[in-house]
Amino acid sequence: MNDEQYVRSPVGSFQSSVGGHMRHSLDHIAALLKGFETGEIDYEARQRGTAVECSRTAALDLIQSLDANLAQRLNEPPDRPVRTWLMLRSDAPPVELASTFGRESAFVLSHTIHHNAMVAAMLRIMEIEMPERFGYAPGTIAHLKRQPCAR
After folding, report:
1. 103 C-beta neighbours (distance < 10 Å), count
2. Can you point out the beta strands (E) in the chain?
3. Which of 11, 44, 94, 131 could in theory staple to 122 by disulfide, Cβ–Cβ 3.0 to 4.6 A?
4. Would the pTM of this model clear 0.85, i.e. be above it?
5. What is the dihedral of CA 109, 115, 116, 119, to 10 degrees?
6. What's the whole-number mean pLDDT along residues 121-150?
7. DSSP category for residue 45
8. How many other C-beta atoms lie within 10 A of the C-beta of residue 123?
9. If pLDDT is split at 50, 70 and 90, which confidence band does 150 have?
């Protein structure tokens, strides 16, 4: 993917760019990691329009940084409590929820896979090669492996 393709918008029927999806997903991962320090995760405290949205290099740098930070958190107890904030309606303030780091880690993983699936569709439209099952959930991949007619 080149720089122009990374920021192209719209892509087919998608009104957003690959860079926008990357920034959005990485913001959620960063919020999760910040929560390991503070005990609070605010998914609404995202910064739109950052360099990650328009620079592949900035995105790759942030991915490396977040990956290193995540690797240090692999042994965190999944049942450790955390407070989260999530906007459920555009005309109301975010709601505060009690959760655990395990549950929030699962949410962020699922959310990232969902956005990767949209990125995969965008890449197909732009005829950009990617790993065959990029954007697939682990459960979907396991299901496809068990099916004799799996793609």
Report:
1. 15
2. 40-42, 81-86, 95-100
3. 11
4. yes
5. -170
6. 90
7. -
8. 19
9. low
